[in-house]
Amino acid sequence: MQDIKQRNIEHVILVGCQVNREDEEFEQSIAELESLAKTAKGKVVGTITQKREKVEPSTYVGKGKVQELVNLIEETEADLVIFNDELQASQMRNLHAECGIAVIDRTQLILDIFASRAKSREGKLQVELAQLKYLLPRLSGQGLALSRQGGGIGTRGPGETQLETDRRHIRRRMNEIERQLEAVVNHRVRYREKRKKNAVIQLALVGYTNAGKSTLLNRLTKADTLEEDQLFATLDPTTRQLHLPSGFSVLMSDTVGFIQDLPTTLVASFRSTLEELKEADLLLHVVDCSHPDYEQHERTVIKLIEELEAHSIPQLLIYNKADQKTDVFIPTHTKDSIIMSAYNEEDLLALKVKIEQALKGMMMPYRSIIKADEGHILAAARQETMIYTQQFDESREAYVIEGHALENTSIYSQLKERLLKES
């Protein structure tokens, strides 16, 4: 069999077991697994599926399918087998013995992609923590997978020295990472408190991976976030300032993309980053309306938002990639939603207007009179409120402004006082 080190791209075989799933949903899941494998620089050379009432406890699929898998490995000279579910340690051990090559599951594949995408210190620590949490209960069942040298899918991150250590060393490393992440979390909390004190509005882009969140962030804020037609193209959160049509400025954050069956270890490790969602004033839920399984993607994200206890935050649904949508697309929500393309300037302006309308509903209207010598108040009003009309009254030598402002802010109190004094 060809040595995997001689290849730039690993040849992989996908294996899935259809249990209590509709045919279409299962097919989409396998297609997504293939996309994940390609994102991890793998080439799919074969796929094996089986429909069962329940998975085989010892080998996940039945004995006949295991033999079929062994034959396919020999035929294709595959380097790696990827299963579409999370395997138990015993299943992985038995499959290693049968296949003779490395076997990983969907969770390891996703963790591997995250490991290759993480750029910031926090991101790298979070991925390593998730990998170690996954690895710890499976040490006895890893066998061949842990003996692979020279990298490859499912081996990035902690590295082979970490994988060969005992449980005590791994727990020590996990404690160390958690201490380092705690310092980052405390810094984030202080930043959030400062932001709230300054009455800065925060928007958070959420959505299924590859829905176009980073593209939207770049087009709206002129940021330079990585854009790729791949799953999990960006991992580390990015925050930029967004200027709305009224001149009002808000902060917009890009977040890690969600995916069906997102590993629980990953959700737990990234909780400090995902906590940003709970602090947002408005969630911008981006859906790729050109994807055949867009409804499932939408439901997956809504479910994860609920699990993070952020479902009470107002949401604006953005059906993105309208230039690629098919005739079968029907929006599941017509209220508080917009169908658009991130590459259309008119659509981007319409989205800004829609965001402004959503924020306006959270604010209080005001009409205030500001003396000509109170320039600092006028400047604060322009920066911290949405101004719609501004006129200079020569008889009063003052500006008359109308707009919307957050109720529990000092600028709103000052504007109310000036209106009362002149009434």
Automatic annotation (TrEMBL):
Highest taxon in the source lineage: Bacteria
GO terms under cellular component: cytoplasm
Keyword Iron-sulfur: no
Keywords tagged on the record: Coiled coil, Cytoplasm, GTP-binding, Magnesium, Metal-binding, Nucleotide-binding
InterPro entries: G_HFLX_dom, GTP-bd, GTP-bd_M, GTPase_HflX, GTPase_HflX_N, GTPase_HflX_N_sf, P-loop_NTPase, Small_GTP-bd
Coiled coil: 66-93, 160-194
Cofactor needs: Mg(2+)
Chain ranges of the Hflx-type G domain: 201-363
Annotated residues for binding of GTP: 207-214, 232-236, 254-257, 320-323, 341-343
Predominant cellular place of this UniProt entry's protein: cytoplasm
Pfam families given in the database record: GTP-bdg_M, GTP-bdg_N, MMR_HSR1
Biological function: GTPase that associates with the 50S ribosomal subunit and may have a role during protein synthesis or ribosome biogenesis.
Binding partners and assembly: Monomer. Associates with the 50S ribosomal subunit.
Family: Belongs to the TRAFAC class OBG-HflX-like GTPase superfamily. HflX GTPase family.
Protein name, as recorded: GTPase HflX
Species name: Alkalihalophilus marmarensis DSM 21297
